[in-house]
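re: ur question from earlier - yeah i can do the single chain one, its not a big deal. heres the input i used so u can compare w yours
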Amino acid sequence: MRLLPLSRPALVCMVLLSAVSTASAHHSPAMFDMSRHVVLKGVVREFQWTNPHSYIQLLVRNDAGNETEWNLEMGAPNYLYNNGWRPGTLKSGDNVVVTIAPLKSAADGGLVVEVTMADGRKLGNAVK
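and the output i got, formated as tokens:
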């Protein structure tokens, strides 16, 4: 079977259309329960300044005193940077209070809405 050559404009359109559908699908908040917020108090294990999303790995003690690790998703580094965040904003060992939109699956994770440091300083919105 012989393939017909595509014109440059047709090829550019195909690439752009495929990128748009991929990007919009990737950034869906469908896995989070955006109708409610949960407040977590814990210790930062790791702050991951990565694309396409940054993450906070937060160690939280449950009612029984056992420590669980929560995987908290944030916006892209560019978005966070524009809202005052920097790669060193959170460090391992920092005590924080994090407000999240929890995962619908009830797993230990969620989408970060707000982070407050132990001294009461709010770090701003991680997502809008």
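The two ends are 50 Å apart (CA to CA). not sure if urs matches, ping me
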